[in-house]
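Recap from last week: sequence in, structure out.
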Amino acid sequence: MALSLVLGGARSGKSAHAQGQAEALARARGRVPLFIATAAAGDEEMATRIARHQADRAGGWRTIEAPLALAEAVAALGPDDVGVIDCLTLWLTNSMLAPEGHDQRLAALVPTLAACPAALFVVSNEVGWGIVPDNALARAFRDEAGRLHQALAAAAQSVTLVVAGLPLALK
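Predicted structure tokens:
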């Protein structure tokens, strides 16, 4: 079991870093790495982003779609699995905007991640370094993301901040 949190800003290289780490570990274990996707193609721009991410993984990955049921997807993993969850802040957006169940999903996530026997690299956007958002939903999202990151960082064995493609080990 190894839980790793990989944080960074938009286009910081955090996904590429997490995927490289997962590929190397999966190869060493003789396993196929898992990509646990939280995105849903709600519009053409998002569909293009998803296609670009799929092309970046260029074969050899198995994909699990979990735009809302992330804890359930993680709970199904075994001790030899190696996976990347990309990305936690997109999952948080999906969960907060869903008509119901957000509090239950949020409460289940960190304990499920911490208990998972698989090696997981959880990718998330650090959104708290900018200006205070001008609307209540954006402020609530920023605050929830910050609390979720703190809880996950406390549970994780490693935390890496990626800036300009350069990883900085925080824990």
